[in-house]
Amino acid sequence: MTMATVQTPPKISAQGVNVFYGDTHAVDNVSLDLYQDEVTALIGPSGCGKSTFLRCLNRMNDTIADCRVSGQILLDDEDIYASQIDVVQLRARVGMVFQKPNPFPKSIYDNVAYGPRIHGLADTREDLDEIVAVSLEKAGLWDEVKDRLDHLGTTLSGGQQQRLCIARAIAIDPEVILMDEPCSALDPIATAKVEALIEELKGGYAIILVTHSMQQAARISQKTAFFHLGQLIEFGDTTQIFTSPTSGRTRDYITGRLV
Amino acid sequence: MTSHILKSYDQELDELKTMVSQMGGLAEEQLDKAMRALHSCDFDLVDEVVASDVQLDQMERDVEQLSMTMFARRAPLADDLREIVAAIKMTTLIERMGDHAKNIGKRARDMALEGPFTVPPLLDSMANEAKMMVSNVIDAYVRRDADAAVDVWEHDEHLDSLHSAASRDILSRMMDAPETMNFMTHHLMIAKNLERIGDQATNVAELVHYAITGRELDQRNTTSAPSITDDA
Ligand SMILES: Nc1ncnc2c1ncn2[C@@H]1O[C@H](COP(=O)(O)OP(=O)(O)OP(=O)(O)O)[C@@H](O)[C@H]1O
Ligand SMILES: [Mg+2]
After folding, report:
1. A98 CB less than 6 Å from ligand 1?
2. A250: Cβ below 6 Å to ligand 1?
3. Which CATH architecture has domain A12-254?
4. What radius of gyration, in Å, describes the C-alpha atoms of chain A?
5. Is B92 domain-assigned?
6. Distance CA B137, CA B133 (A)
7. CB-CB: which of B2, B75, B78 is closest to A245?
8. What residue in A sits closest to B3 (Cα-Cα)?
9. Which of A185, A222, B70, B181 would suit a FRET pair with A211, their CA atoms being 20 to 30 Å apart?
10. Which residue from B9, B79, B227 is facing A251, i.e. has the nearest CB?
11. Domain of residue B188, residue span
């Protein structure tokens, strides 16, 4: 396994993470370091535990009955499963974007303003306007929606909705952004826009991206992790994984071979 | 390695490999004919050598075309990506081998028109060595044998030393009989052509090794370079 050459400590360090749904061992002893300034792609066949692992990183599995998580996940060296951790606060630091764009049935403005409001990030209406504008700007959506901020978020196109969800995620100024197949419902142009946005955001946030598109992982990630049957098979520099993977299983998966 | 889920992908890759190895075979045959033409002053053989060169050019374009199609259709990765990139680069090298063989053939004709001459035995040794390298590297490619590619790569040194010996020999013959200067110059150029063919075979060996292992040949002994584990 290739070791990270980065000198800075990892933003998130997962150590020996196991996840069970009842008797199903969905994530099997996974250890993985994720760095600020990097996009890490999680790839692997359907059901290999990518989403499950991703959801561990902001404790979204907590709400699933029957789901047990063990091992350690450190965010800036702090155990996010420790008893004193405030989960709402944690999710403000570790934001998430889902496969299907899921704007609230509210105005475009309110979709973005919702997080800053509940987290008390804006003291005045002007502050809030500023946060909404900047977030939409960063999400590359501002020019398209600035004249109709009061329209329902759900009236936007799929690609615009996904960028709205990204704007919503970055409005609360997270440190980490988790994305679970954010482009799987988008056409190539909308996909390119989201990818451009991810490239733009890179540096400010640690971004973890689950994708079924090998080309997408190759295009925008610096690190790639290949999961298979709940285990982390290979983790390393994206270029290395896609040109000369170390594991035969990684190769068979990314080249579309029978396993 | 197991098959692709898409059979047509495997078929295209097989087709690509067949085209490359056929080019290699043709280049080897062309070199053989060029050397025979040199000994026999047979102009028909020279014509065949020149014709093969045209064929090699066409095959190079065909490989390029198929590779482009595969990039567009398959978005190849990992072993497949290395395979296709190696194929494109190999055909360029093989096509150049063909150019050198063609030059030898043309010189055979020029020299025959100038009068009788004898071929220095060291040129034959060089040609045999070069032919063996071309033949073995294509074999290594077809058999997916990275070690055999390393063997070819290591042979280049031997061909280089034969080249120096041949050059010295030809130069000293020239000193002894200055009236043979024209022939000897041709011989020197032929020695250079043969040495270049060996270089190209060596470069092909590097590509074959990289396509198979994912590692550059000159880093094969370093511990940091990963080697694939077939844990599937
Ligand atoms: N809520 C749940 N309850 C029970 N089992 C679950 C639950 N969510 C996931 N699993 C199981 O855990 C395993 C991993 O699922 P997960 O959703 O993490 O896979 P994935 O890699 O994200 O797959 P996909 O690429 O299809 O999204 C699977 O066997 C799945 O059936
Ligand atoms: Mg999933």
Report:
1. no
2. no
3. 3-Layer(aba) Sandwich (3.40)
4. 18
5. yes
6. 6
7. B78
8. A257
9. B70
10. B79
11. 7-213
Predicted pLDDT of residue A186: 84
Q: Which of A24, A179, A209 to mutate to test the pocket of ligand 1 (most atoms within 8 A of CB)?
A: A24
Residue A202 CB less than 6 A away from ligand 1: no
- Identify the CATH number of the domain in which residue B110 sits: 1.20.58.220
Name the token pair of A103. 């704007």
Residue nearest to atom 30 of ligand 1 (CA): A47
More confident residue, B176 or A2: B176
Which one-letter DSSP state was computed for residue B219? G
pLDDT band for position A259 (50/70/90)? confident
pLDDT tens profile A39-91:
999 999 999 999 999 999 999 998 898 999 999 999 999 999 999 999 999 99
In a domain, B80, yes or no: yes
Please tell me the residue having the least CA distance from ligand 1 atom 7. Answer: A21
Q: For residue A5, what pLDDT is reported?
A: 55
Q: Is there a domain that residue B207 lies in?
A: yes
Choose among A49, A101, A93: nearest CA to A229: A49
Q: Which of A19, A25, A52 to mutate to test ligand 1, by most ligand atoms within 8 A of the CB atom?
A: A52
Beta-carbon separation of B228 and A243 below 8 A: no
Flag whether B227 is in a domain.
Answer: no
Atom of ligand 1 nearest to the CA of A44: 21
Query: What is the full DSSP assignment across A152-209?
Result: BGGGS-HHHHHHHHHHHHHHT--SEEEEESTTTTS-HHHHHHHHHHHHHHBTTBEEEE
- Chain B residues whose CB is inside 8 A of the A259 CB are 2, 232
**pLDDT score, position B56:** 96
Helix (H, G, I), strand (E, B) or coil at A236: strand
Instruction: Report whether pLDDT(A1) > 80.
Output: no
- B/e letters for A59-86, b = 16+ CB within 10 Å, e = fewer, are bbbeeeeebebebebbbeeeebbeeeee
pLDDT at residue B223, rounded to an integer: 43
Residue B227 pLDDT exceeds 80:
no
Region B3-13 average pLDDT: 95
Q: Name the band, by pLDDT with cuts 50, 70 and 90, for residue B1.
A: confident
Please work out whether the CB of residue A24 comes within 6 Å of at least one atom of ligand 1.
Answer: yes
Residues in CB range of B86: below 8 A, 6 or more apart: B207, B208, B210, B211
| Total tally of structural domains belonging to chain B | 1
DSSP state, residue B116? -
